[in-house]
């Protein structure tokens, strides 16, 4: 279950990265296309870091009321 929560936290970043890459593929090679590809790469890195951070956090052991 916690694996699913980690995946859903990274999902928005990955979806946005996919959108940037889709847009970059429509462009001719050049600076604008390269910028979109760099942005997508950074978004994927953010998703990776968020997933790593979420998986290393200790579970909350407090009782829920």
Automatic annotation (TrEMBL):
It comes from the Bacteria. Residues 30-65 are annotated as: Disordered. Residues 30-48 have a biased composition (Basic and acidic residues). This is Uncharacterized protein. It comes from Bradyrhizobium macuxiense.
């Amino acid at each position: 279950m916690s694996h699913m929560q980690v995946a859903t936290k990274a999902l928005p970043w990955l979806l946005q990265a996919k959108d940037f890459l889709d847009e970059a593929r429509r462009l001719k090679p050049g600076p604008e296309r390269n910028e979109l590809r760099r942005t997508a790469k950074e978004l994927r890195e953010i998703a990776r870091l968020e997933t790593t951070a979420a998986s290393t956090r200790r579970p909350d052991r407090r009782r829920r009321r």
